[in-house]
Amino acid sequence: MNFYMQTGCIGMAYLENLQKMMEGEVPPPPNSQFLGISLVEAGEGLAVFEMEASDVMPNPMDTLHGGILCDISDAAMGCAFASTLPDNASYTTVELKLNFIKPVWNSKLRAVGKVIKKGNATGLVECQVYDSKDGLVAYATSTCIILTDEKSVGR
């Protein structure tokens, strides 16, 4: 059973669990703990995460590794989308695109994930990642597919 199933974090219950995560009642997923990604705001169709990018996360060019920006973006978009689902549903990402706007070294990052459009089967989500000076450092989009009934079991 995965982390989200263990904590009951699916559907509208997911939004409630996001609130509990911000209050410290529900632990964040292991990858967020490892990277120091913290949920700071959540609402229906919205999730905001923050983290400190530091000099222990560089790529070979000595700037923040792009995978870190992808991880915080994916967390923000996934939680924003999941917060819109009914209790009997789950989702999975079918496409993710990330544009790197400018390099990052040591900075507090803020990722704002928002649902752009949710249909009956799929949804489009975006994320803007800002540095500590409110400069846009990355822009991401994601397409998610909604899973219901037996397709959502074990997700």
Low-pLDDT regions = 1-8
Q: What order do the SSEs take from the amino end to the carboxyl end, as H and E?
A: HHHEEHEEEE
- Give the proportion of residues in helices: 25-40%
Ends apart, CA distance between termini:
8 Å
Give the neighbour order of strands across the main sheet: 1-2-4-5-6-3
Q: How does the helix and strand content classify structurally? A: alpha+beta
Task: Please tell me the overall pLDDT.
Answer: 88
Beta-strand share of residues: 35-45%
Q: What is the general shape?
A: globular
Radius of gyration: 15 Å
Largest sheet: 6 strands, antiparallel
* Count of helical stretches: 4
Can you walk through the features of this model?
The chain has 155 residues and is of the alpha+beta class. 26% of the residues lie in helices and 39% in strands. It contains four helices and six strands. It has helices spanning 3-7, 11-22, 30-35, 66-82, and strands at 38-43, 46-53, 89-100, 107-118, 122-130, 136-148. The protein has a six-stranded antiparallel beta sheet with strand order 1-2-4-5-6-3. The longest helix is centred in the middle third of the chain and has 17 residues, at 66-82. The protein is globular and about 45 Å long. The N and C termini lie close together (8 Å). The model is unreliable at 1-8 (pLDDT under 50).
Task: Name some characteristics of this structure.
single chain, 155 residues, alpha+beta, 6-stranded antiparallel β-sheet, disordered N terminus
Fold blueprint:
Blueprint: H1 3-7, H2 11-22, H3 30-35, E1 38-43, E2 46-53, H4 66-82, E3 89-100, E4 107-118, E5 122-130, E6 136-148
Antiparallel strand pairs: 1-2, 2-4, 3-6, 4-5, 5-6
